[in-house]
């Protein structure tokens, strides 16, 4: 026969509390254990990442930019006076010489003024010759008069000497000697006056001739100016080169100073390289440069640094040391690299996709077999075009990922597959 065993309610309650406390401890322990587990490392395709090995040695610091080839010798041909374009003889691309005519202009008023200037010059030259001849005649007449008076003076001197001798020998009258003396003195004075008149006539003639010659020179200069302006209606290249631009049309009126054409020497080119303003602060004149024309590279040096900044870049002119590769022509797009310094015996690695000079960044460093990468704090130094100096955080031989890993910023470890 079964006998019912009664259970104490208090014991049942204690048992339930113990079970509940045990369950709570188990759950808490499991949660704590899970919280201590490392976050699962994501898997990344290794083929999609770019990595490099840290090296020790010499690193060439340089800056890079893009630009174009431009002629060193450019000749803008301006209009010399108001005119109208009557004919375009040569078009852009034509090979020109200094006397090659590019445009024909017309200005009827200038042609009339040139003709008037020519007639005025001829009239002034004729007047000058007439005055010169007249002054020459006047001088000769005055010299003849002076010579006649001097002749009379010399005769009077002789006569006076004879009369004095006759008086001394008591063969002549004293009054006769006195009269000849008076005549001699009078002619001496007249001789001096006539010689002064001759000198004055010569000075007057010289001044008159100089004045008329100045007038002739003035008319000749005016005529030369008009001729030059008239000749300027035939617009010439002025240098050997290639005609690049003719910014006018037939029938267009042009004012003095308006550019009519541009000619450049294609054999003498330089590169205008655009360098980011943040990288241009260390550039100085004379730095060695290398320019890639897509058909070859050529070395040169920095010859000018634009003091202004435009659109975040600084324009740097590079002149070349040798001949350019075939195919080099004005406005050709080029890549330029300017060497700043050669750093000796430093740690360096390829330039990462992020980070700035003299900053600290996090880079993923690969383990020995390349299956995993761990984020490492790295202090960067000076930058070059494709490399960067390593100050702290890496050693020679370490391999780091240089690709942009910003999407993995929440992970300290990744797996590569």
Can you tell me about this structure?
The chain is an alpha+beta fold and 417 residues long. The chain has 3 domains: 46-70 and 268-416, Elongation Factor Tu (Ef-tu), domain 3; 73-105 and 240-264, RNA polymerase II/Efflux pump adaptor protein, barrel-sandwich hybrid domain (OB fold (Dihydrolipoamide Acetyltransferase, E2P)); 108-231. The protein is built from 3 helices and 21 strands. It has helices spanning 9-36, 108-168, 174-231, and strands at residues 43-44, 51-53, 55-71, 74-78, 83-88, 95-96, 101-106, 234-236, 241-245, 253-254, 259-264, 269-276, 288-292, 297-305, 313-320, 333-350, 360-366, 372-383, 387-392, 399-401, 413-416. The strands form 4 sheets. Strands 3-12-15-14-13-16 form a 6-stranded antiparallel β-barrel. Strands 4-11-9-6 form a 4-stranded antiparallel β-sheet, with no helix packed on it. Helix 2 (108-168) runs antiparallel to helix 3. The longest helix is centred in the first third of the chain and has 61 residues, at 108-168. The model is unreliable at 1-5 (pLDDT under 50).
Concise summary:
Helix content is 35%, strand content 33%.
Strand order of the largest sheet: 3-12-15-14-13-16
Total helical elements: 3
CATH homologous superfamily identity of the largest domain = Efflux pump adaptor protein, beta barrel domain
Radius of gyration: 52 Å
* Number of strand elements: 21
The overall pLDDT, averaged over residues, is: 85
H/E series, N to C?
HEEEEEEEHHEEEEEEEEEEEEEE
Describe the biggest sheet? 6 strands, antiparallel, barrel
Low-confidence stretches: 1-5
Query: What is the count of distinct domains?
Result: 3
What shape does the CA trace take? Answer: elongated
**CATH architecture tag of the largest domain:** Beta Barrel
Task: Compute the separation of the termini in Å.
Answer: 73 Å
CATH class of the largest domain: Mainly Beta
- Name the structural class: alpha+beta
Q: In percent terms, what proportion of residues is strand?
A: 25-35%
The helical percent reads 25-40%
Instruction: Kindly report the CATH topology of the largest domain.
Output: Elongation Factor Tu (Ef-tu), domain 3
